[in-house]
Recover the amino acids of this structure.
């Protein structure tokens, strides 16, 4: 049964602390194995990719067939229904429009001392997108990871996706095509991450790797971090729903289950000001579970990690709890969601009002669905265009402006004992290094 | 002697590859030791901090004296010369002005389908700033790390600085005061990082830790990453100077040495189109080394890791080399630095023209001096205000707008086999879950 907590209970603090720090994921220790795979790919390149793909995906490849051809992509698109392609297109258009507003501007100005200053943003040269194969192969993830890179202006976007026994979700290839990705390799696991990071004869290396994956992929991303940039390593999904008793319990119950069905280690929490409403939601969860296709997963997640927290006053009491949980997804099904949102510091994404189920954000709302998990919304943000760009600052002095600001630099550099620093400025001042 | 490479040489590619991948740092394996220290601080809190500080900094502290008092700070400021305080103030004002332009704006709009969408930025709740003690204790680093946090609006900025044998650089405390930091603890090493990440009875935990440190501090930051956010782990400093023969070789030589004097593993590279000018710079370096106080360090760095690369045409040939090196600092001492900068994708910061020595950016130009090293400018940026903020997206649908965009979400969710996702949307559509 999910945890029940009442903020009036003297042992509430302890119970809530438990929610915050419960380990939901069993971390497999795959680091040594993964390090070995990466070494092999660095040493043997394509040959290693081909060997691992034969062993783990039961696919016989050659350097020439590592890449999925445009004909295969087009054939896959042909297998998708028009309804599905239209829905994909709606999602892609909305995601692209939302992300286009994130493109940052260059600053370039001259200050009162005559120093020219500024910062410009450039896209990373090449980005690699990992797409899981099999049942966790989600076309929506392709859109959410690739479109920010496209909007950022990344010139080369490479996708890797394993095709165990030759199987691939056609809509994944359709999503890639919709994003303009033409360079797709049928490889997966740590070996694919290694190929993206270090390159092989067939696959040129990239600068940044993003996308979800299993424990092997996550470990590989950690190990290649530094050689390339990576997105954050996502933990299990979470939703926190804040709801008063003027909601339909069946709606709120389904929202909780929409996270729970992802994974048995997902977490769904309800905060309400009405214990009876909490009971009604719990009952509706049980009713939904009777018919839900993924009831086994969703039920286990809800029983093991779910929680219903009852507070006295949602507006007064919930913001502090929300900020400590720093949820990936925050749904505010209350009378004045804006007022409550204004009191919240930490959340990956907020869904405002009774008609905004979190799942709308997973597909078509526009904002990214790759969001900070495990309380990291305290210090990090969802995937966005800036993740595929970097900022270069610039300074230009002339003989006059270096004279205006240089002496302070000389003073500070000398005080830090860095005389070459001081002299490199002083040489450009009147009197040169003698100043 | 520094490496000499000529782009016309048939073996140039190989030599340049060597520059790119040379290991300059010996990584001490301190992870196990550091993990033990972190565990102790988590278990024993203040008592562990006090024990480690007695052992490593030879300081006897109590929970009450862990914190540096305002009186001590004021006394330290009193020891700094007026000239030094004025220089600090010039630097702080310029850094603050530059960073103020980075504060991002909230977006909030309604799209054609009536969906309200947007993203807002909030500061992290608390930031911790690590400041090294002893000879590597740089007041300029305090400004560069603290001011972006202050500009971001971080409510609580905590500084930790070890005071081995009671010693502290008074200008470091003056810099902290200038940044408005009042919460300062006289602790350092992995134990200080652990206290910031997990908290003790005296020190409340923070959300993000930034600042330079030795191998122990770097390992501790890596280990607490995830529990808190961290800045990047900086490698040894680098400069790439692109200079034609119309520069004074003595100026360029000093610029190269200003990086080299940081550390024996720092790297200074000159790209020029005139081999004779390269020779003149090499000679000027040797001349400077005869009198430079840190000649031992700078000389070793230059001999072991320095390089002079001669190309045929700076404008045509250097951009590709620059992008591969992705230098932390790029100085363009050429006739038209803007034209050359426009052809460059990867650099942490660019210094334009003959009168802009890199060191001006270390202190007073305004942009941050915490910059991506080890080729990570390919995918990451210097420290900035955004590092102390995070972005929360939001969506609000009403009954009409969820009807407009919901069906596409239902279609995609069903195709991904996520029925609770589909139903949580469908329940809000006309016809409810039957649609």
């Amino acid at each position: 049964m999910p945890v029940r907590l009442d903020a009036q209970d003297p042992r509430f603090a302890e119970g809530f602390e438990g929610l915050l720090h419960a380990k939901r994921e069993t971390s497999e220790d795959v680091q040594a194995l993964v390090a070995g795979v990466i070494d092999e790919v660095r040493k043997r390149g394509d040959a290693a990719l081909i060997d691992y793909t034969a062993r783990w995906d039961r696919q016989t490849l050659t350097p020439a067939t590592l890449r999925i051809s445009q004909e295969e992509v087009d054939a896959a698109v042909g297998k998708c229904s028009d309804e599905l392609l239209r829905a994909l297109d709606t999602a892609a258009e909305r995601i692209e429009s939302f992300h286009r507003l994130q493109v940052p501007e260059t600053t370039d100005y001259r200050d009162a001392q005559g120093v020219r200053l500024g910062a410009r943003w450039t896209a990373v040269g090449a980005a690699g997108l990992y797409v899981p194969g099999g049942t966790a192969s989600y076309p929506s993830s392709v859109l959410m990871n690739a479109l920010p890179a496209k909007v950022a202006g990344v010139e080369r976007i490479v996708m890797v996706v394993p095709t165990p026994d030759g199987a691939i979700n056609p809509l994944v290839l359709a999503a890639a095509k919709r994003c303009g990705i033409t360079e797709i390799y049928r490889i997966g696991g740590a070996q694919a991450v290694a190929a993206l990071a270090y390159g092989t004869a067939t696959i040129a290396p990239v600068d940044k790797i993003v996308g979800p994956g299993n424990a092997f992929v996550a470990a590989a991303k950690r190990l290649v971090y530094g050689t390339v940039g990576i997105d954050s390593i996502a933990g299990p999904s979470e939703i926190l729903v804040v709801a008063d008793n003027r909601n339909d319990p069946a709606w709120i119950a389904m929202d909780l289950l929409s996270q729970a069905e992802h994974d048995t280690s997902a977490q769904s929490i309800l905060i309400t000001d009405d214990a009876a409403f909490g009971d009604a939601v719990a009952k509706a969860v049980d009713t939904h579970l009777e018919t839900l296709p993924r009831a086994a997963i969703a039920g286990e997640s809800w029983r093991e990690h779910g929680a219903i927290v009852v507070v006295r006053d949602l507006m007064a009491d919930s913001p502090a709890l929300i900020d400590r949980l720093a949820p990936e997804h925050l749904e505010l099904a209350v009378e004045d969601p804006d007022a409550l949102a204004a009191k919240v510091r930490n959340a990956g994404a907020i869904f405002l009002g009774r008609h905004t189920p979190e799942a709308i954000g997973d597909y078509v709302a526009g904002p990214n669905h790759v969001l900070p998990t495990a309380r990291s919304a305290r210090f990090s943000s969802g995937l966005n265009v800036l993740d595929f760009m970097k900022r270069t600052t610039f300074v230009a002095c002339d003989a006059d402006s270096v004279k205006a600001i240089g002496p302070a630099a000389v003073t500070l550099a000398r005080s830090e004992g860095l005389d070459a620093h001081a002299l490199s400025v002083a040489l450009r001042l009147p009197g040169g290094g003698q100043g």
